[in-house]
Amino acid sequence: MDRDAPTNRARPAGTAGTTAGPPDPWEAIDRLHGWLTANRAHGGREGLLLRVLKLSEEVGEVAQAVIGATGQNPRKGVSHTWDDVRSELCDVMITAMVALRELAPDAREVFAEHLASVTDRSLRPDPSPDAEPAPEPAAGPPQSDAGP
Questions:
Q1: pLDDT grade, residue 142 (50/70/90)?
Q2: Which of 60, 82, 104, 124 has its CA 20 to 30 A from that of 134?
Q3: Residue 9 reports pLDDT greater than 60
Q4: pTM of the predicted model, to two decimals?
Q5: pLDDT (tens digit per residue) in 125-138
Q6: How far apart are CA 25 and CA 10, in angstroms?
Q7: Whole-angstrom Cα distance, residue 148 to residue 105?
Q8: Are 88 and 65 in contact (CB under 8 A)?
C-alpha cells in the first residue's frame, strides 16, 4: 500500500500534515506483552497455554463477524459490518504477535525470518517436476519447564 496515498481514516488530533511513518508494531507488541504479563492470572506453562488459546477465541470472533456481516443467522440477520470483520482480523494478528512474543523474546526476528521463508517458498518459480522439495527444519517452543 502506498503510504502517501490518501485514506479515508481520520488522523489523531495534532498530526495533520505530519510525515512520520506508522509506529513500529513490534514496539507496541512488546508493551502489550509486558502489560499482559504483569496482569496475568496464571503464569508458567498454564499461562503460556492460555495465551496461545486466546488466539482461538479471537478467530471465533472473526467467524462470528463474517456470519453477522453476511446475515447468515436468520435469527440475528445482519448484525456486523465488514469493518467489524477487519477489526476482528486485526485482533487475531495482535493476539498472534503477542503469543509469538511470549514464546520468543526475539519475536520480530523470528517472524521476519519465517515471513521471508514463506514468501520465498510461495513466490519462487515452479520447480521442475522431478525436483523434490527441501525438508523444513523442525522448530517448537522453548524446552524449559521454568515457564515464561
A1: low
A2: 104
A3: no
A4: 0.70
A5: 876 666 666 666 55
A6: 19
A7: 10
A8: yes
Tens of pLDDT, residue by residue over 12-61, are 344 444 456 778 999 999 999 999 999 999 999 999 999 999 999 999 99
What 3-state DSSP class applies to 144? coil
Type of residue at 23? P
Grid coordinates given for 120: 520465498
DSSP H helices in 40-106: 44-70, 82-103
Within 13 Å and on the Cβ side, how many CA atoms surround 80? Answer: 19
| Rounded-to-10 torsion of CA 52, 107, 38, 41 | 10
pLDDT of residue 137: 59
CA–CA separation, 116 vs 101, rounded Å? 18
* Length in residues, the chain: 148
- Grid look-up 507496541 returns 28
Q: Which residue has the cell 517458498?
A: 121
pLDDT at 146 over 50: no
Q: How far is Cα 38 from Cα 25, in angstroms, rounded to an integer?
A: 20
With 0-12 / 13-18 / 19 or more C-beta atoms within 10 angstroms meaning exposed / middle / buried, residue 101 is: buried
Q: How far apart are CA 70 and CA 77, in angstroms?
A: 8
